[in-house]
Amino acid sequence: MNIVIIGMGEVGKHIASVLLEEEHDVVIIDQDAAALAAAEDAFDALVLQGHAASASILHQANVRSADLVCAVTDNDEINMLAALSAKQLGARRVIARVSSAVYYPDDRGLVSDMFGGIDLVVNPKVLVAVELHKLVRSASAVAVEDFADNRIEMVQLHVLEKAGPVGKPLRDLKLPENTLIAAIEREGQLIVPSGSHAIQAGDEVLCVGRIEQIPAIEKLFERERRRFIHKVVIVGGSEIGVHLAKALVTDGIKVIMIERDRARCFQLKEQLSDTVTVLNADATDMHLLEEEGVERADAFIAASDADEVNLMTALLAKQAGARRTLALVHKPAYAAVCERLGVDATLSPRLTMARQVLKYVRAGEVLSIRPVLDGRGEFLEFMATKDARITAGPIMKVNFPRGANICAVVGQRGAYVPRGMDTIQPGDRVVVFTTPRQRPAVERMFRRPTMLG
């Protein structure tokens, strides 16, 4: 694909790295000479310096032949103008990163066909708030993803040293019905397991199944979620913090929000309901955390705009006894630091934005794509078509690629985890775990054969 990326901030750099790794042709545009120099050193891509909405620059980037243009600078208006200009010049699809809430009619953080020309407008901050909400609901998971209209769920669980499955081959595990271990991360290595692979302490396991069965698999790994989440502490009155607080209040959860800026606290009181307690205080003050009973919090979420504050407050909360700590990170290096120091999970707007871009890159071949484990693995959701190889017979006989797992199927039988003798029918929705390297082989299984003559 020919793809143009406008803006070389953290979001743009991450998207560029993912797309170039997949061997797409990428052109990069930015006004900042230093950012472009860094991009030129890091990436094998054409770089252009200039205003993103300049017709001259867009012509030089050959947007008329672009399959996708992603405008992801820090300026909403520039992104929208650049996207509209690219569309008018002939770009097939355009995506704009827009953070201001005034452009969104609801709380989903996504708008399609804006102004009759922008195919997708994305607010990564709102989407991160949605992801944080999922993690709070599933208190034992490092990550949570939903598929097939929320009928299938994936949770990433850390394996404790004394957990029951440790040392047992997968074939000997008594997994709950309609669940599957799709992948294992071990010491930085990704494993797409077979029945002979054994679980080890310290592994990260990606478990998939019918959404109502996920609590049972969490219990198997002794990571059982609480029946109710009662209290959540949020640090930072950012847009992400506000959206998250509103979602948690809707669930009937008590929310305490800590914000250092006094003027911002008054704004928060106007935006949030009376059920949210807003404190004008410094969340890096250990005495404050103790006074507010952080040790009784079911989740502590560091969601300020500063990575350093989020890292420090999450660690202090962990030390104070918070049951679960989550941190928002903008710089890639901080995610690894947080994990090494014991923060339970991190989320990043750049990865959230990248997911939406990748979905459009794969449009027409898959229904959705969800990168996991920093892009080393991914979940793809397909619609099985008539005459595709995947529908030719039982799964065990269609020569499905190694290094990939069929995790779930949703069709006339309902939602289920298939076995070797099951046959996928045309029209079924199929969730597959694979790696970027194996994805082309998986995609071929779901395509109609080319008609000749």
Terminal residue distance: 27 Å
- The best one-word shape is globular
Would you state the CATH class of the largest domain?
Answer: Alpha Beta
Low-confidence stretches: none
Question: What's the domain count?
Answer: 3
In round numbers, the mean pLDDT is 86
**Arrangement of strands in the largest sheet:** 3-2-1-4-5-7-6
- Helical amount: 25-40%
Helix/strand/pairing class, anyone?
A: alpha/beta
Structural Rg: 23 Å
From the 3D structure, determine the CATH topology of the largest domain: Rossmann fold
Estimated share of beta-strand residues = 25-35%
**Main β sheet profile:** 7 strands, mixed
Number of strands: 23
Task: Explain the layout of strands and helices.
Elements: E1 2-6, H1 10-21, E2 25-30, H2 33-42, E3 46-49, H3 55-60, E4 68-71, H4 76-88, E5 94-97, E6 110-114, E7 118-122, H5 124-137, E8 143-147, E9 152-158, E10 179-186, E11 189-191, E12 204-210, H6 214-220, E13 231-235, H7 239-250, E14 254-259, H8 262-271, E15 276-280, H9 286-291, E16 299-302, H10 307-320, E17 325-328, H11 332-340, E18 345-347, H12 349-361, E19 368-372, E20 377-383, E21 405-411, E22 414-416, E23 429-434, H13 439-445
Parallel strand pairs: 1-2, 1-4, 2-3, 4-5, 5-7, 13-14, 13-16, 14-15, 16-17, 17-18
Antiparallel strand pairs: 6-7, 8-9, 9-12, 10-11, 10-12, 19-20, 20-23, 21-22, 21-23
Helix pairs in contact: 1-12, 5-7, 5-12
